[in-house]
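step 3/5: co-fold with nicotinamide-adenine-dinucleotide
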Amino acid sequence: MTPVCTLTIGGEALSSDATFDVVNPATGRPFAAAPDCSPAQLDLAMEAAAKAFPDWRSDEPARRAALAAAGEAIMAALPELAPLLSAEQGKPIGSTNPGDAAFEVGAAAAWLGYFAGLEIPREVIQDDDAARVEVLRRPLGVVAAITPWNYPLMLACWKIGPALLAGNTMVLKPSPFTPLSTLRVGEILRCVLPPGVLNVVSGGAELGARMTAHPVPRKVSFTGSVIAGKRVLAAAAPDLKRVTLELGGNDPAIVLDDADPEAVADGLFWGAFTNCGQICMAIKRIYAHERIHDDLVAALAERARAAKVGEGTVEGTQIGPINNRPQYERVGELVDDALARGGRAVTGGKPLDGDGYFYPPTIVDGVSDGTRLVDEEQFGPALPVIPFRDVADAVERANHSHFGLAGSVWSADADRATDVALGLDCGTAMVNTHLAIAPNVPFGGSKWSGLGVENGPWGFHAFTEIQVLHRSRA
Ligand code: NAD
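step 4/5: write C-alpha cells
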C-alpha cells in the first residue's frame, strides 16, 4: 500500500523505505500505509529541531503569530482532516459531540489559539535599594512528544501549543494506530512554522523508546498507558530529561441517594461512552447508592439501547468502533470475565456481528470490586454499575486504585456532593458532570495516572525552566 502522508523533518517531506499498514477499525482492513521512520531519520529530525531552536526562542511575537496561524490552518483543513481522523480512529465525522472527529479538529485548533494568546509571566520578586530580582521562564530545548490513538490531534496540540509558545522546538510521534491525521497536520504546518520547529515522525513503540533515550531532547511529554509511561520515565532518567506523563485512569462516579436517576443518566452515560469509552478520564465504574441503583441501571440501559453505533462516515452515528484489534479483544475479555463471575450484561455483552471492531455500549450489573472490569482500565464501551450503602465506603472503594486521574459525585445537593468529591484521590474532582476539560484548566493525574499537568499556565510552565535574574544595586 502506498503511504498517503510523509514525515516532516526540517520543513521537508521525507518518505521512508519501510512502511506499516493503517487499519480502518470500521472494516478491520488496512486502507493506507504510513512511513516507518528509520533511526537515521529520527537523528535528522532531532538535528533539525536543535538547529531551529536558537532562532525560534529569540522572537516571542513571531511565535505567537505562528501559533495563531497554525490554529487557523488546522481549522481551514477541517473538511479534509475530520474524515481522515475518522477513517483511522473510527470516531464519527460530525462536530456535535466531543467524541466526533470534526469536534476534535476544532478543539485542536482552539488549543493552539489559546496558547498563542497566553501571557508569559515575568515576576519581579524584589525591587529595592539592594537589588532587583526577577523570575524568568526559559525554554528547555527540543521536546520529544508522544501521543496515543484516542484523540491524536487534540492531544498533540496540548503539547505543541505550550511547548512552542515557550520557545522550544519539537519532534512529535503519534500512535502507529492513528498516524495519518498527525502526519497530515505536520504537512499543513510546513508553510506556517519555520523549518525544524515542528518535526513529525511515525512508527511504533520502538521509535518512541528511541526518542526518549535520544541525547538531543531536554523534555519528554508523553500521553499513553501506565506501562509505557514507566518505561519513558526510566529512559529519560540517565540524562535527567524533564518528563510530563499523562497516563491511564479508572475514574469512579459516585451517585448519591438523592440523585434523580433520569436527571443524571445522560451525563453519566456520555461521561462513560463518549468516543466509545476510549478516554483516559471517561467514567469507568459507577458506584450508585442502593436506593437508586436499579432505576439508574434501567435509565443507563435505555440510553445504551438508543445510542446509534456504526461507521463514523454514516450520518447520525454517535458511537464508532473500538480503535484497534488488541483493544477490542481486551474489552471483550474483561466483559466475558465479569459475566463468568456472576455479572449480568443489561445491554450489549458481546461484539456486534460483521466486520470491524464494533462492540455495543455494555452496562454490567452484579459485579463489584475485585472483578477485573471494575479494578482495571477497560478503555472501551463497558461500564460496571456497583451498589453501595455507605458513602464513606464508596469513597474508600473509589480510592482503592493505583489510578487517580479524575472522579465525580452526583447529587441533587451540590454542596453535599462537593464534600464527598473532596475525598477523592485524583487530579480532577467533579460535581454533577464528568469529562470537564478546557485549555485554561490544568489536567493531570495523581498516583499512577501521571506526573505533572497539561494545560493552562501550569501546563505551560512544564515546558520551561526558571532562571533567576539578580541585578545588584549595592
Ligand atoms: P500506549 O502507551 O500503548 O502508546 C502511547 C504512545 O506511546 C504511542 O505513540 C506508542 O507508540 C508509544 N510508546 C509505546 N511504548 C513506548 C515506549 N516504551 N517508549 C516511548 N513510547 C512508547 O497507549 P495507547 O494504547 O496508545 O493509549 C491508551 C492509553 O493512553 C490509556 O491507558 C489511556 O488512559 C491513556 N491516555 C491518557 C490520557 C491522559 O491525558 N491522561 C489521554 C489519552 C489516553
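step 5/5: annotate
DSSP finds 15 helices and 20 strands in the chain.
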